[in-house]
Design a protein that fits this description.
By secondary structure, this protein is an alpha/beta fold. The chain contains 19 helices and 15 strands. A hairpin with a 5-residue loop joins strand 14 (422-423) and strand 15.
């Protein structure tokens, strides 16, 4: 987290931090998580505010505060806030070590991309400030690099640090150039480099410079064994709640032998998570924590689960797949998959076809039962399995409207015009095409989709206009 850099760390909307998602997980464990439309959020290391500005624009009755050491990024965010006319968000330029947020004032605290990349004293300050800032039922989102998986990346960092040290002048541009050149030299001319380093070095050629500078050339990058991380968090008065990506807690993809070990650790969630990290060689974590004084219920209440909204992370692919399989496309990445037909596939198909708004369990249950007559117990088991394995997200409230009319958020429209990553209503950041940006930029006021299609006929053939609008609807860009 550098105060000045030729490649300042880029921030963008991260769906895992959305209070409706974090709140859903917290409620399942017995926490009375605040409603997203009436909550307070504090982000440490907010950059230019790209993660919380869209939230502030959507939830005008909620309150948002961000702090970052980069005055340049904060100023950029302030200009966007002013252009949007928002009064429920404030961005502060400063060092978290020198700033104390109001005590017990925030329902959600977010700290992404900071904890592993600062000095030990700052890490402790982050924990202390978070504990102080959290309300009694508040939740902290904290990301960091993890061992044993990151140990392999450490070799890349070692090599690149040596290459960067050959530069006489100061500046990230020269250090980055030398680091990449030295990495290429070693990979091409050393027989001792592991296949992982070779593959990672190739991927880095297409990586964002800001990521490379922070991850591999920054002053600090401290990965943690999960048990060591939790030792520090516990000493500060925090306890483990869950992973923000619930799928990372699932063990269904692990061997029977590993699952046998995990079963013996059902009463020790910290040790269980550590074993999963080792079995997966995990490199990165997004952990949810809460006050140690909160009494958690790890039984995952079925009543609370059924009260959530569920939205699929996939959409129907529309392409032919093997008989007996369901074809899907991941909304965010565009990755195509196929799953065997069965209880889970039937429920997933129903949820996917409900679109980005999603639905409550009883709506899903009725639709599935109308198709194959599944029992309530079968439906619950299927939806729970889909949630646990990452095929669907649980939300305390829907993030998109019913899409009866085309209406685009001011944030998305501004981002589309400014040619930056564009934030959907699902709080996902997309690098949209020029054509998609043109569609969003034309929605200056709510209009019917047929009227929008008519407007776009001045720029595109009818089939292409309809295709663009449909794609944006599936990605969640209409309120």
């Amino acid at each position: 987290m550098s105060s000045s850099s030729a490649y300042p760390y880029k921030t963008y909307a991260r769906k895992e931090t959305h209070p409706a998602r974090v709140g859903a997980i917290a409620r399942l464990y017995g926490i009375k998580a605040a409603r997203v439309d009436q909550c307070s959020v504090f982000e440490i290391g907010c950059g230019d505010g790209s993660n919380i500005i869209p939230l502030a624009a959507r939830y005008t009755q909620s309150r948002f505060l961000g702090i970052d050491i980069s005055g340049e990024l904060i100023e950029k965010g302030r200009k966007e806030i002013e252009a949007l006319g928002l009064s429920n968000i404030e961005l502060i330029s400063g060092d978290i070590s020198e700033y104390k947020p109001p005590s017990a004032s925030f329902d959600y605290v977010i700290c992404h991309g900071v904890y592993s990349w600062v000095a030990p004293s700052v890490r402790q300050t982050i924990l202390d400030r978070s504990v102080s800032a959290l309300s009694s039922q508040g939740v902290l989102f904290l990301s960091y690099n993890t061992l044993p998986g990151w140990r392999q990346r450490g070799a890349l960092r070692d090599i690149m640090s040596v290459g960067a040290s050959f530069v006489d002048q100061d500046g990230d541009m020269a250090r980055l150039e030398n680091a990449m050149a030295f990495l290429s030299l070693i990979v091409e001319h050393s027989n001792s480099i592991t296949p992982y380093v070779r593959e990672a070095a190739e991927r880095l050629k297409n990586s964002d410079p800001s990521y490379i500078v922070q991850e591999f050339l920054g002053d600090y990058n401290t990965p943690f064994m999960f048990t060591d991380f939790m030792r520090e968090a516990s000493a500060s008065g925090l306890q483990f709640l869950s992973e923000a990506r619930v799928v990372m807690m699932s063990s269904e993809d692990l061997s029977p032998e590993v699952n046998e070990v995990l079963k013996s650790l059902d009463d020790n969630p910290i040790a269980r998570e550590q074993v999963i990290d080792i079995a997966r060689n995990r490199m990165f974590r997004e952990t949810l924590l809460c006050h140690a004084s909160v009494k958690l219920d790890r039984g995952l209440s079925s009543a609370v689960f059924k009260d959530l909204y569920f939205v699929s992370t996939y959409i129907p692919s529309g392409t032919a797949v093997k008989s007996g399989e369901l074809g899907l496309v991941e909304r965010y990445s565009g990755r195509e998959i196929s799953v065997p037909e069965g209880e889970c596939a039937a429920s997933l198909k129903v949820i996917a076809e409900m679109g980005p708004r999603g639905a409550k369990f009883d709506q899903i249950e009725q639709a599935v039962q109308a198709i194959d007559g599944a029992s309530s117990e079968d439906c619950f088991r299927a939806v729970y399995t889909l949630w646990k394995t990452g095929f669907i997200d649980g939300l305390t409230t829907p993030l998109c409207g019913v899409n009866e009319v085309a209406s685009v958020s001011p944030v998305a429209r501004m981002q589309a015009v400014n040619n930056t990553l564009v934030t959907s209503e699902l709080h996902e950041s997309f690098n949209l095409s020029a054509e998609e940006r043109a569609v969003l930029a034309h929605v200056l006021a709510p209009m019917s989709f047929s009227a929008l299609e008519t407007v776009m006929l001045a720029s595109f053939p009818r089939e292409r206009a309809a295709q663009l609008i449909s794609g944006l609807r599936e990605k969640g860009f209409f309120i």
